[in-house]
Amino acid sequence: MVELVVSSVHKVVDKPQQRVVILKDNKGSRCLYIWIEPTIANAITIELQNVKSERPLTHDLLQSIITALQAHITRVEITSLKENIFHAKIYVEQTTEKGSRIFSFDSRASDAIAAALRAKCPIYVNENVMDEAAISLEDSELTLSKGDALSDKDNPDTTVFEEFINNLPTLDDL
C-alpha cells in the first residue's frame, strides 16, 4: 500500500459538472486523480479549508455516529480500479469493555477520502492501482509544493498544472 495525501480538488473548466480530486504520494513523485461528483468535491473542499457548516454534512454525521459508538476510522484504502471506477474500504475500530473490533466497509473512493479527512486518518492506495492509474510527476515538468491550490490564480506554478488537469481525458475517453 502507498500512503497518499489530498493535494487539491479541481473544477474542470470545460466540463462544469466534473470535479477531480488530486492525491499525491508521500514522496511527491506520483499523483492519482479521481473524478468525483460536485457534492463530494464540496465536502472534501470544506474539510480541506477547515470551514464549519451550520448543520452537519453527511460525512460529519458519519463521523459523529462513529464517535458516539466508541469507534474511530483508522484508515481508508483505495483497493481497486474496475471499469474506470475506484473502489475503497473504510476501516473502523470500535473499542468497548469487551475489547476491540475492526470493521471494514465498502465505499466509493470519494466518500472514503471525505471520511478520512474528517477522521484525520491515513489514505492508502493499492500499489497495483497506483501502477495502473497514477501519473509520475518525476517524468513531467509539473512541480507543486505541498498545499498549493489548483484554483490559486496568483501562484504561477499552478497554471501549468491547471492546463495539465484541464486536458486530462474523462473516464469516457479512456
Structure description:
There is one protein chain. It is globular and about 50 Å long. 29% of the residues lie in helices and 36% in strands. The protein has helices spanning 38-48, 58-68, 109-119, 127-133, 156-166; strands at 2-11, 19-25, 30-36, 71-82, 85-96, 99-108, 123-125, 135-136. Helix 1 (38-48) packs parallel to helix 3 (109-119) and helix 2 (58-68) crosses helix 3. Mean pLDDT is 82; it is low at 141-160 and 169-174. The chain contains 5 helices and 8 strands, in the order βββααβββαβαβα. Strands 6-5-4-7-1-2-3-8 form an 8-stranded mixed beta sheet. A hairpin with a 7-residue loop joins strand 1 (2-11) and strand 2 (19-25). With 174 residues, the chain is of the alpha+beta class. It has a single domain (2-166), classed as Bifunctional nuclease domain (Roll).
